Structures are given as structure tokens and as C-alpha cells.
């Protein structure tokens, strides 16, 4: 009975170590100044801009890698509103946001995401979504 227990324990430790190693590249610290600034800007836009959908704007930071035998994929997401743009939004009153077209551009915001796939260290494909124009000018 004892050898089976030791074998089970060894397998568990091996699996735990492998899982921990696979997650070493994870970073999802959302207690960051850029995330808070994005959330503040979204709140201000929601209060000032008619038809602005606050839930559609992601204020998230994450980085992680999923790996297999000879392939891995890295994922990255940044807040949809960068800190400099968030500060600009917060500095304007509601009338100025509407006048300058910030409300219209805010309705078109997309998540800032990248995913890159590698096989044996060679990039094979990837996806990306980015906001192409400055929100606040």
C-alpha cells in the first residue's frame, strides 16, 4: 500500500510543478494606474455621453502564455483607454467632450488585444485589435 501512495505523491508533485511552470508568464494585475484611469474615464464618458455603453469598453490588463509541446501562444490585453487619453477625457467637461467628438469616438472603442502563436519558436500567426484614432484630442 505504501509504494502506491509514494507513486501517487510523486505524480502529484510532478504535475503541480509542471502546471506552475506553465503559468509563470501570467500577469493579470488590474490594480494598476492605467486600469484605474481607464475606469475613471469610462465613468465620466458614461455620465456625459448619450448612447455610450460603458460595459462595451474593457479596462483590463493581462498577459499570459499558453504552451504545448512545440508551440505556444502569448496573449496581451491593455485597457481600451490609455492613461494619457484617460487624463484628457477627465480634464474635459461634458460639453467639451461632446463638442470635440470624444463621445462619438468613445462609442467605437475596441479592446486593445494581441495574440501571437509560435511553433518551435517561429511565429506562425496572430491576431490584434487596436484603436486606430486618438480618443481625446
What are the salient characteristics of this protein?
5 helices; single chain; elongated; 4-stranded antiparallel beta sheet; 22% strand; alpha+beta
Task: Please outline the helices and strands.
Elements: H1 2-22, H2 33-48, E1 62-67, E2 71-78, H3 83-91, H4 94-99, H5 102-106, E3 112-119, E4 122-129
Antiparallel strand pairs: 1-2, 2-3, 3-4
Helix pairs in contact: 2-3
How would you explain this protein's 3D organization?
With 137 residues, this protein is of the alpha+beta class. The protein is 42% helix and 22% strand. The protein has 5 helices and 4 strands; from the N terminus they run ααββαααββ. A 4-stranded antiparallel sheet has the order 1-2-3-4, with no helix packed on it. β3 and β4 form a beta hairpin. α2 runs parallel beside α3. The longest helix has 21 residues. It is elongated, with a radius of gyration of 21 Å. The termini are far apart. About 7% of the residues have low confidence.
